[in-house]
């Protein structure tokens, strides 16, 4: 945020800088396209979870889809805020 752009989430605390300009499209989303690119991952994992439950697959398949959704949501939150805990 060297450009002096104010963000909703405060200063960037991440040590990794991806290839997008930060807060170019919104003051709420730091890296817009990296954030949006996680939506298909979440949707596909959700569809897989529904199919696994509907077809009564083993529990490990449901856990697999839930973990993929969790990973995609975490990635989305990271790219939206660029905050490191």
Automatic annotation (TrEMBL):
Which InterPro entries is this protein grouped with?
ACER (IPR008901), ACER_plant (IPR044219)
Where Zn(2+) is bound, by residue?
79
Q: What does the record give under GO molecular function?
A: hydrolase activity, acting on carbon-nitrogen (but not peptide) bonds, in linear amides; metal ion binding
Keyword Hydrolase listed? yes
The answer to whether the entry has keyword Metal-binding is: yes
Grouped into one coarse class, the protein's main location is: membrane
Gene Ontology, cellular component aspect? membrane
User: What parts of the sequence cross the membrane?
Assistant: 32-50, 62-80
Which keywords has UniProt assigned to this entry?
Answer: Calcium, Hydrolase, Membrane, Metal-binding, Transmembrane, Transmembrane helix, Zinc
Quick one: a GO biological-process term for this protein? autophagy
Q: Which membrane topology describes this protein?
A: Multi-pass membrane protein
Question: Which co-factors does it depend on?
Answer: Zn(2+)
Q: Which sites bind Ca(2+)?
A: 20, 22, 31
Tell where it localizes: Membrane
**Hey, which family's this protein in?**
Belongs to the alkaline ceramidase family.
Name recorded for this polypeptide: Alkaline ceramidase 3-like
* Organism encoding this protein: Punica granatum
